[in-house]
Amino acid sequence: MAVKIFLAGIMQGSHRKATLYNQDYRQKIKQILAGIKNIEIYCPYENHPRSLSYDQARLKEVFLEHLRKAAHADVLIAFLPEASMGTALEIWAANQAGRLVLTISPLAENWVIKALATHNFLTLEEFAEFVRQGDFEALLQSRLKAQEK
Description:
This protein has 149 residues and is α/β, with parallel strands linked by helices.
């Protein structure tokens, strides 16, 4: 059975208009994880690239769907170069469901990150090194064994 990963992260951030933060980080994270076997990554942006044009009903439906997916994933990986209310709620949902929450953020003193993340990486490079050294897979294995008990 594949390990389900929910790829969370800033989309609109604090923009006051309907515009997106650069989403290139999603591909970078997927490249970092490319060597890991038996994982399934769900990316909200890839599944809803035109979400800024959704009407209120569709927007709410998709947002609540993402919160459910975050809570049901085995691991949530969140990229937060700055605060994001939507990502904070996804982190909350995953944490409340007992999931692994890995954040990539320089906001190490942010209470959402400090209180709810299993581990925070200050940079993408730090996260990449964690994966390269096999620590990500070890963490997954440890969590899966603990769940079997």
